[in-house]
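Example: Amidohydrolase.
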Amino acid sequence: MKYTFLTAVLFLTLTTWAQVPAPAPKQTKPVLLTGATLHVGNGSVIEKAAVAFDKGKITYAGPASGAPAATGYEVVEVTGQHIYPGLIQPNTQLGLTDISSVRATRDEQEVGVFNPNVRALIAYNTDSDVLPTIRGNGVLLVQATPVGGTISGSSSVMQLDAWNWEDAVIKADDGLHLNWPTIPRPPQPDALPNLSELLTNRERTLRELQQLFTEAAAFSQEATGKQNLKLSALKGLFDGSKRLYIHADGAKEIVEGIRFAKRNGVKKIVLVGGYDSWKITDFLREQNVPVIISGIHALPSRTVDDVDLPYKLPYLLQQAGILFGLQYDGALHGHRNLPFIAGTAVAYGLTKEQALAAVTANTAKILGVDQLTGTIEVGKDANLVVSSGDLLDMRTNEVTLAYIQGRKINLTDKQKTLYQKFKEKYEAQK
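Written out as structure tokens, the predicted fold is:
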């Protein structure tokens, strides 16, 4: 019985793996997409456009009338469709966890409170069933991010079609994630003793955090040769090679966290969450801190807030001149809805191209990969998608082609396979 059970488990496992399409091979022939409307990602739109790419890099993006001669190219006619940059999902556990209720598939969190030495990229699972379902809606890159504790660890920018994490990485260890301690709010009068304990614990955490940064700053000035994984991981914050992502929502916590980082010599800071960021836009602009907005499809956090505040937050930051990107922060399978988060922002004030930039060019700039991707421009990676309709509209979004670094991606996934399987079954019964 034991061997029969093990054989069954192995069969089911192999069957599951088989549902993940094999990664696409490297581009071997120049490709020319022609006839579509090109959305560059920086606000520009070109009708009757053409995009050419070779060896994974874009070689032409502009009007079809100025495109290179078709000789030697694989010409793909996409007249009537739309070409977009591949979307980028920041601050996600995609690739780090598959099934939330199955502990063995979750590798997004390490034990402990201060874990700057934890690296998300080595836990990134390219065989996840979830990844193909996400890229089918145009999301081609993600920022794999650990969670938990006060300092969760380092995130990395990864692409969604690879054999292993080494192939998938676009930018390794782009930044460290700090969950700024929340200020306890006054509870009911009979819970005041608990409030005092919460405040004491918070002060202790802040003291320990300050001590860690003080030691890390001193360590970064010392001669190389000494080994300290935690302090070494923080070193990049002081020379600008890494970003500090401060996760905070309340206005007081945001200001407190940014001032802490500035006081300790952190060069590059990004705010993640930012529910109250619209209240302190002058401060954010003065400190040159961009925002990754989460919780667009959500109810307001406070009863006194405008019921539409989460939907309007991108527009409010756009009007204030704050650089921002959007993230989908619901269940992992829902990350395919990233383009529709941007679409919601269009309904509440942004133009379509501003919303597109919030999930492409802006996010690439915030993550420090804008020299490689985020827009469809000559010299950048050929990360792009073709949709027969508006990519940001749930009613018309239909990705027909996708390329990552010039490689044509197989858009089949487990859900499409099951749909086709049962469609054939029930059609045969008619």
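The two ends are 41 Å apart (CA to CA).
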